[in-house]
Structures are given as C-alpha cells and as structure tokens.
Design a protein that fits this description.
Endonuclease, Chain A, elongated, 3 strands, three-stranded mixed β-sheet
Length: 139
C-alpha cells in the first residue's frame, strides 16, 4: 500500500510529533512537583529519561501507547505496515536495552504508559512516591 500523503506533507506531519514535554509528561511532572518530589529534566544518562531523581538513582520514562507498543492500546497501522512494525519493534528493543543498561549501572527504572497518566494520575504519583519511600530515598 502507498502513502496517501506526499513526501512534503508526510515530513510536515511527522515534524509535528513531540518528543518531549508531551501533555501526559507535563501532567505527571506538575503532579510530582506539587507533592514535593523534586526531579531533574534533560539529565544526561542512557535512554534520556523524561525525568530523573539523580541522588536517588531513579529514572522515569513516560511511554506513548503507539510509539512503545502498549499491550492495551497499540493498534498496528494499516498503511506501510512493514515500516511501522520495524520502527515500533526498534523502539521496544531500544527500551529493553536502555532499561538493562540503567539497571546494571544501579538505577531503578520506572516506565509509565501515557494512558495510565490520563486514567489515574494520582496512582502514578503514588507509585513513584512509594518507590522512593520503599528504598528509604525520601523521608
């Protein structure tokens, strides 16, 4: 099957896709900050986590349901299926590799799906807060 958009149109559409500061990511950050949980952005470690608690060695990723193949919401595109399968599979493999690398370096990795933030933001904040308490990382 061929692409219904011209190369110029497709390039424009793809350039509009945000890589950071997405709505779910910003919602989570604001909720964590309001709970007094202080994190860092743009922290230079493997995988470029969305937010990091550096002294506690906790990295948090907010994964989009499409881009990271959410088991609950991912639907394969009908057009250019082979391209998208390879692209999404590459993302999933990269996530696994980054998780392993961070864990081997002593980091705790937390991955939260965008739908989890949209459905129950408080639960996501609690999950991160409990992890930090469990590890005696915060008071």
């Amino acid at each position: 099957m061929f692409d219904v958009l011209s190369p110029t149109q497709r390039k424009y559409c793809m350039s509009r896709i945000q890589g950071n500061n997405t709505k779910p990511e910003v919602l989570l950050r604001k909720a964590l900050w309001n709970k007094g949980l202080r994190y860092r952005l743009n922290y230079k470690i493997t995988g470029k986590p969305d937010l990091v608690f550096p002294s506690k060695k906790v990295a948090v990723f907010v994964d989009g349901c499409f881009w990271h193949r959410c088991p609950d919401h991912y639907v394969s595109p009908k057009t250019r299926a082979q391209f998208w399968e390879a692209k999404i599979q590459g993302n999933v493999e990269r996530d696994k590799k980054n998780n392993a690398s961070l864990e081997n370096a002593g980091w705790k990795v937390v991955r939260i799906w965008e739908h989890e933030i949209n459905e129950d933001l408080d639960l996501c904040v609690t999950k991160i807060g409990e992890l930090l308490k469990q590890k005696n990382l915060i008071g």
